[in-house]
Design goal:
This protein is globular. It has 348 residues and is an alpha+beta fold. The strands form four sheets. Strands 1-4-5-7-8-11-12 form a seven-stranded mixed β-sheet, with no helix packed on it. Strands 2-3-6-9-10-13-14 form a seven-stranded antiparallel β-sheet. It has a three-stranded mixed β-sheet with strand order 16-19-18, covered by helices on one side. The chain is built from nine helices and 19 strands. The protein folds into four domains: 52 residues, no CATH class; 59 residues; 138 residues, Jelly Rolls (Sandwich), CATH 2.60.120; 73 residues, Phage tail protein beta-alpha-beta fold (3-Layer(bab) Sandwich), CATH 3.55.50. The two termini are 54 Å apart. InterPro entries: FecR, Ferrdict_sens_TM. This is FecR domain-containing protein. Pfam families: FecR (PF04773).
Length: 348
């Protein structure tokens, strides 16, 4: 990832991606720069100056007339033919020799165009630079971000994400917490791997999926496309590979390495990305886990039977701990109270 936060106005003006955004903006580049400016408002003055610099440079298309093009070709042929005139005395030119000369010139012209084309591609292809980027969310906070490869990520509360690209064809992400990914497929089929700081990794080319890496469990849900899961044994080097289809979930237990695959409604699991909590036989125990995961609020229960209370339905996710506690109180008909910075629940 370019170190744009260190750029001056001149650096921005010389950056090719920045120039494309200024001169030929599209949805992707506009989203990227708007998002970047929100994260780095102190760079607005430098960016505005760079925009003026880029727009002040005008290039005039050079057009050749048909006569000029014909003269150019004649000069090319004459230059090539000049190399053939090495004999000290005139040599009769036959039809066959004319054909050979023309064929040689034609082949030389094609070779010239190939060399020029390769040179142009080399000049247009920027050199590869290793990339590293990281982002984190606090309790009760989510972040939507665009990775350097234009993949979209929605990071849930109390989560951390590290993106690296040490090789041109390999993109890697380390996730602690929960995130929804929309991975952009690359023309060169470069891989995209999500690591969970454990024995499980998710490998994908282009798809939408959700990874929850909170506590002692890892849950991977595929929403669209296909992904390959690499599960390493906790003892030994053996790796098991599993594939998920849309609507399938893999649950992995970090404590014993056990895992299982099942069908699930992916839209319900990823409803948090749309600001909704879908409760399908949702229990007080689930609510406690939600509060701990999203708001870092710990809840203790005096009567264990309360944990089995359940409801079904949906509610909006409001990233305010007290508001969510009140919503759970209404849904389960229980009462949460704060005692010594710890939440207790009791039956009404």
């Amino acid at each position: 990832m370019q170190q744009y936060h260190l750029y001056t106005a001149r650096d921005f003006a010389l950056d090719e991606y920045f120039q494309e955004w200024v001169l030929q903006p599209d949805v992707k580049s506009t989203y990227y720069w708007d998002t970047w400016l929100k994260l780095h408002p102190e760079k607005k003055e430098a960016v505005d100056t760079a925009i003026q610099l880029v727009r002040s440079i005008h290039f005039r298309d050079y057009q050749m007339t048909a006569t000029q093009k014909e003269a150019l070709w004649d000069n090319i042929w004459d230059s090539i033919a000049a190399d053939d005139i090495t004999a000290p005395s005139p040599v009769p030119v036959t039809a066959a020799s004319r054909f050979r000369i023309f064929s040689w010139k034609y082949a030389a012209a094609i070779l010239l165009f190939i060399v020029l084309g390769l040179l142009w591609l080399f000049m247009r292809t920027p050199p590869f630079h290793p990339l590293t980027a990281s982002v984190a969310t606090q309790a009760g906070q989510t972040k939507r971000l665009l990775l350097p490869d234009s993949s979209e990520v929605l990071l849930n509360a109390s989560s951390r994400l590290l993106y690296t690209q040490k090789e041109p064809l390999v993109r890697e992400v380390w996730l602690d917490g929960e995130a929804w990914f929309h991975v952009k497929h690359q023309k060169d089929n470069r891989s995209f791997v999500v690591h969970t700081y454990d024995h499980l990794s998710v490998e994908v080319l282009g798809t939408q999926f959700n990874v929850n890496n909170f506590g002692n469990k890892i849950a991977v849900v595929l929403q669209e496309g296909s992904i390959k899961l690499n599960i390493a044994e906790q003892q030994g080097q053996h790796i098991t590979q599993l594939y998920l289809r849309p609507g399938e979930m893999l649950r992995y237990d970090k404590t014993d390495g056990e895992y299982s695959k099942s069908r699930i409604d992916a839209e319900k699991v990823t409803a948090w990305t749309r600001g909704q909590l879908i409760m399908d036989e949702y229990t007080v125990a689930d609510a406690i886990q939600f509060m701990q995961q999203v708001f870092d609020r710990h809840v203790t229960v005096k009567d264990p039977k309360v944990l089995r209370y359940s409801v079904s339905g949906s509610m909006p996710i409001i990233y305010n701990a007290d508001t969510m506690l009140m919503q759970f109180e209404k849904a389960f008909n229980v009462r949460f109270s704060k005692r010594d910075d710890t939440n207790h629940v009791r039956e009404n």
